[in-house]
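This part of the workshop introduces the protein records we will be handling. An example says more than a description, so a record of this kind follows:
>
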Amino acid sequence: QVLLMESGGGLVQPGASLSLSCAASGGRLSGYTLGWFRQAPGKEREFVAQISWSAGTTHYADSVKGRFTISRDNARNTFALQMNNLKSEDTAVYLCAADSRFPIATAASQYTYWGQGTQVTVSS
């Protein structure tokens, strides 16, 4: 069983950057599709970004395209989300996820393993 743990959340001002990391234990991530989701209070869990097994394919939500970058480091068994030009509407709990069944996965239902989440707050 793969265990995931996020780190790097915090409180930042609009326009700032923040980097989230997700570390895995209990299994290697090299054969997994990896994703980031977020959930704001009272809202549905929302897809943010995903990266394929080989890191050759990435997908982003339209709301973060051009501002966020997902990457993976199979050797270190981690993956990351670099967030630039943050906006107040990016405020949410960010969760990392992994699954080995799909080369491309943008729906929460496609992911088996989840982290606990890390809070990102963008406020002046």
Remarks:
- The chain has a mean pLDDT of 95.
- The two ends are 40 Å apart (CA to CA).
- The chain has no helices and eleven strands.
- Residues 29 and 77 are 6 Å apart (CA to CA).
